[in-house]
């Protein structure tokens, strides 16, 4: 399998694992915040609002930190940001929800300083793997590996809550995240990588029409995922509690893991923009059965189904981001995808809290169905921009002055999969 070839490449396994571990706090914070607020006696609306504030702050911080990484390198930005984020979440864990201004400030700071490890890894793949076909396989493997984290992460949160407390879950996961970030930034590829020279432009990566079209579509995919996070809490409260909630979230990740593994096991030909249309359509359709609200076992199976096409959508999006990122903005461009996804998830959590309180889990699970449909509409309307030729060929370049310094791949026309 192509995945084994990628993992045998020097530094590849360390970078992948370190990035996943480093992103664990970000991947689980929405769940951990919701469970912590509920343990403190807070309402669904408060839990959703705090999770949304974290997500919005994260969305603001990712492209800003991504641009700083492109300008100053990974170690100078990633590790300090990880430490500051963890310290802010520790403040929230120890002070709780009273007073509220302190709680909001702490989760906002934790989100704002979340390091852009995800975008950083995708910027590193071309320098580690060198061949474009391998890089695209790595993108698919990256999406699959994320789903392992999203499958295991909710279970880790619930295990920490069961063994200790929701407060302990917040603290432990953020300490582990700092260790993951440390592992990445001290690696030779991370220390050697430098972004290609960039054209000075205040919009940065956002001056690409294709990238803007992609971000518009994935905003609504994020809304769907964020809404499931809150709707599942309401369902679990009536059907077995925190354990059921953990299984529902793990099922969502497991479905994406299976779908991503199958998707990444083969080489895809044809236009990725049109392939994305089909994948988003299937993703939207698979959200609809959640509204049936069967028993916990059947509901877990439906959550698996709802995640099957998520990782393929993300992997296909990575190829399109790589195609449309302007020169010198690769980390920033991938960070904008993370940001848009996070904004969507935050909107979904904030919107679904009041929806659940007003209409119950049924109406909560209606939100992802609607959001998935809107995402498909955006892709269909903007498929022309998504299919337009980009400008980056994935060919690693080496600095003339320092043969050990790997820079972002240079631009050339065409040569796109």
Care to describe what's here?
- There is one protein chain.
- This protein has helices spanning 2-8, 12-22, 24-39, 44-72, 75-95, 100-112, 117-129, 132-163, 166-185, 188-192, 209-237, 242-264, 272-287, 296-307, 310-324, 330-359, 361-387, and strands spanning 397-398, 406-407.
- By secondary structure, it is an all-alpha fold.
- The protein has a single domain, classed as MFS general substrate transporter like domains (Growth Hormone, Chain: A, Up-down Bundle), CATH 1.20.1250.
- Strands 1-2 form a two-stranded antiparallel ribbon.
How would the blueprint of this fold be written?
Elements: H1 2-8, H2 12-22, H3 24-39, H4 44-72, H5 75-95, H6 100-112, H7 117-129, H8 132-163, H9 166-185, H10 188-192, H11 209-237, H12 242-264, H13 272-287, H14 296-307, H15 310-324, H16 330-359, H17 361-387, E1 397-398, E2 406-407
Antiparallel strand pairs: 1-2
Helix pairs in contact: 1-8, 2-7, 2-9, 3-4, 3-8, 3-9, 4-5, 4-6, 4-16, 5-6, 5-9, 7-8, 7-16, 8-9, 8-12, 8-15, 11-12, 11-15, 11-16, 11-17, 12-14, 12-15, 13-14, 13-15, 13-17, 16-17
State the major sheet: 2 strands, antiparallel
Shape: globular
Q: What fraction of residues sit in β-strands?
A: under 5%
For the biggest β-sheet, the strand order reads 1-2
Give the CATH H-level superfamily.
MFS general substrate transporter like domains
Q: Please state the second-level CATH architecture.
A: Up-down Bundle
Radius of gyration: 20 Å
The average pLDDT score comes to 82
Task: Output the helix-strand order.
Answer: HHHHHHHHHHHHHHHHHEE
Report low-confidence residues grouped into runs of 5 or more: 391-417
* Topology-level CATH name: Growth Hormone, Chain: A
Structural class determined from secondary elements: mainly alpha
Helical proportion, percent range: over 70%
Number of helices: 17
Question: How far is it from the N-terminal to the C-terminal residue, by CA?
Answer: 19 Å
């Amino acid at each position: 399998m192509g995945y084994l070839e990628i993992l045998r490449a020097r530094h590849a396994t360390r970078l992948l694992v370190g990035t996943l571990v480093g992103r664990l706090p970000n991947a689980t914070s929405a769940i951990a915040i919701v469970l912590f607020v509920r343990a403190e006696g807070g309402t669904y609306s408060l839990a959703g609002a705090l999770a949304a504030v974290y997500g919005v702050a994260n969305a603001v911080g990712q492209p800003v930190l991504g641009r700083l990484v492109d300008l100053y390198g990974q170690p100078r930005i990633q590790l300090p940001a990880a430490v500051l984020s963890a310290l802010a979440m520790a403040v929230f864990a120890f002070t709780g929800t009273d007073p509220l201004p302190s709680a909001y400030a702490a989760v906002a700071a934790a989100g704002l300083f979340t390091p852009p490890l995800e975008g950083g890894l995708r910027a590193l793949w071309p320098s580690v793997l060198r061949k474009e076909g391998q890089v695209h396989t790595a993108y698919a493997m990256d999406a699959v590996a994320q789903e392992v984290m999203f499958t295991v992460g909710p279970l880790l949160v619930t295990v920490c809550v069961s063994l200790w407390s929701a407060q302990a879950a917040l603290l432990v996961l953020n300490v582990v995240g700092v260790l993951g970030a440390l592992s990445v930034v001290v690696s030779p590829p991370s220390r050697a990588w430098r972004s290609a020279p960039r054209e000075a432009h205040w919009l940065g990566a956002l001056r690409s029409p294709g990238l803007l079209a992609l971000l518009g579509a994935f905003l609504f995919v994020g809304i769907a995922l964020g809404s499931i996070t809150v709707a599942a809490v309401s369902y679990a409260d009536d059907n077995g509690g925190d354990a059921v909630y953990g299984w529902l979230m793990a099922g969502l990740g497991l479905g994406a893991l299976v779908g991503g593994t199958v998707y990444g096991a083969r080489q895809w030909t044809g236009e990725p923009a049109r392939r994305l249309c089909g994948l988003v359509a299937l993703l939207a359709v698979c959200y609809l059965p959640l509204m049936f609200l069967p028993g916990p076992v059947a509901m877990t199976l439906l959550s698996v189904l709802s995640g099957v096409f998520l990782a393929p959508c993300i992997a296909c999006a990575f190829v399109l981001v790589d195609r449309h990122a302007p020169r010198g903005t690769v980390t920033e461009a991938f960070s904008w995808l993370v940001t848009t996804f996070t904004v969507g998830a935050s909107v979904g959590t904030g919107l679904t809290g009041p929806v659940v309180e007003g209409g119950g889990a049924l109406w909560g699970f209606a939100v992802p169905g609607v959001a998935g449909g809107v995402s498909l509409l955006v892709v269909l309307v903007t498929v022309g921009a998504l299919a337009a030729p980009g400008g980056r060929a994935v060919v690693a370049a080496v600095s003339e002055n320092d043969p050990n310094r790997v820079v972002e791949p240079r631009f050339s026309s065409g040569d796109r999969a």
